[in-house]
Amino acid sequence: MRAFAGLGISLCLLLAACNQAPSVTPPNAAQPNSSIQVLGTLELNVDTTLGGQAVSSGVIPGMSLTRGESAVYEDAFYRYVSVDFVIRNLSSTPRSNVTLLAIGTDATIPGSPYRVFRDENGEGLDSAIAADIRPSHGFVGPGVPDTSVTRASFQAYEEGDVSQLNGIRDIKNAFPWGYVATREDGGRTLGPNGTANATANFTLAVRVPKATNVASLVMAVAVVTDSEIRTTRDVVERNKDLDGNGTATRANALSVANGGAPVTVATMPGDLAITSCASCVTTNIMNVRTMGTQTAASVRLLDPAHRAQVALTGEAVANLGGSTFDALSATPNVNDAGQVAFYSTLMGSATRGVFLKSAEDLAPSAVAWAGQEAPEAGGATYNTFGTSPVLNPAGQLVFSSVLNNGRTAIFVGTPDAVTPVVIQGQAAPGTAGSTFNVGLNNFVSNAAGQVAFYSPPDSSSTTELVGIFSGQPGDLTRVVVSGDSTPVGGTYSFPSPVTPTLNNGGDVAFVASITGSSRGNGGVFLQQGGAVAPVALRGTTGQQFSSFNTNPPALNDVGQVAFLGTLSGGGLAVAMGTPDSLTILARQNAQAPNASGAVYGALGAPAINGNGQVAFQANLSGGTTTAGIFLGTPDSVQMVALQGSPAPDAPGLTLGAFGTTVALNDSGQVAFTTTLSGNGQALYVGTPENLRLVARKGDQIDTNPSPDIETLKTVNSISFTSGSGGQDGRAMGLAADGTITFRVTFSDNSTGVYTLR
């Protein structure tokens, strides 16, 4: 994480220096009978690249603004921007609860209060970023809100509180949120000019996804007064102040500072009422609209930022006229370029296929579909497909299909071109007269476009080779096959199917049995530069392990391997290493870190990233918690999440049972599924310091791409692709920049594929 103070983050009024003069004409004389009254409108520029600029006075008649301190904090996901301001009453009339309310005008991006976004070079960015911005209280750290009276400025309203402001001056779309000014002593009334109470402070703060590269944004606001004293328990605050005591303390202080006046506390869906504040009235408002209109909200405050719809039941396939998606029945995968791949059944001219969507595409395109002629297959067509295609870093989709002639094959390609990797019955290298058999799911691929796969036994053939192969289409090489000699004596055998792993340098890791060796009856092996060496052996005579988990060994680009095995003395262990060095990270019955005295029980298969960090799930015993997610190196293992701990972004709920495998990226972010208290499934991603909710059962997702039409569907279940650390050639559910892809089934049994970054 990074923190920056005084980096010249400026909030300037858009005067001549900002290329547009602010509105200064007084509001319409006749305003609706409301507690909220408009003083005027203006545009503000939040800029992380400008040096300090004076903020001009007199923009709103009788008011002046002065810029104060600013700060930016960053974590793995977000940039948190806070700018403090002093507002002064220059008139002889007291002003109460002065608030800068977000508004849409003719100049702003439709459905938003923002006019433009720019990067650090001043280049304009996609207006779709408006959906990613989340207003908040001020920040004192990455994801850490300042809940003090003067800096907890974010204020939320009911839609009915602000809807009557539409049409006043240039307000086309009043949003139900803004930033309220408070005096240093907690008072909310600005006294007449010249008095000690004529000034107040507010903090304009936003949370922006790092991946959007936003360095500046222009926002339209209306300066209003309000007869009610309000404070809001915002989305960041409720993750840090789980019991609401911090919110209650602030509300009590506001009441006292304002002569015992009642304070309206706005809470979000899922929050409990604030009961420890005698002068408070809790109002549980709807999920605050941050984009869209009052009648068609397209984004709300509690919605995860930048959740993009990739595919949905009933939507059209870009390059298959007349075909629409039916059941998106398998978990999707993503690469570091943000491309997403998946399998789906279809309605229309084709019945099923495998699909790819790039970030710039309006809709997914079919790479292959049932009935299409397969390349170099003697006129055979695709019939059925394996449901676990692998999208490699080069943007190529590796997939398997049973052709209409009964043969199984592995292919690699894009919507523009497909090439066979291997077809069942094809001649295999290394042994004259031998052939390949092909499985539907036991393959991986790397950034060079190489593919590694397992050739299983075929009871109908006597010529097939059983073992592991790798290489490019047309240039496959033999890694090991049954009967080959091992480096520790004896020969390899594969009594059950295995999946190898493949890093971007072409190294291959795999698990195999050994026949006829005094040093063991199996092992985890690594092939580098054509030579195979054992990372760990199993056996009853002097070996550390008695068996290995059937999951593929995890692998990174420097040749480190992580795996799950059973120790010869009993108990599971997560281990990592190379052929020269092996270390145990976690073993059954050993103390788990930060787990309230619990010890490890059953362990899940690990994932390893390019930095040598290993993530895994573990059941726990002997303490107050029964399961956890862990991340670390041999020198230091950290707890990421514990069963029974408060669930981030789900107030009042706790984390429950976890999925047995996780996903990991090079930023040290871990993704996992859990069951929340109340039996609701949820998907999380993050670091030990910062977890965020991706999606949960009961979420409502707007599935209509039109910003003017809202079609909400309720999430019933969630699945995602776990297991990979990003460099082992397996399908990834989590990209290096934190983009996660997942599948949801809605309550109406339709399905969708989404990404969140």
From TrEMBL:
Pfam families: DUF7453 (PF24251). Residues 1-21 form the signal peptide. Keywords: Signal. It comes from the Bacteria. InterPro entries: DUF7453 (IPR055876). PROSITE patterns: PROKAR_LIPOPROTEIN. NCBIfam families: NxxGxxAF_repeat (TIGR05002). This is Uncharacterized protein. It comes from Deinococcus humi.
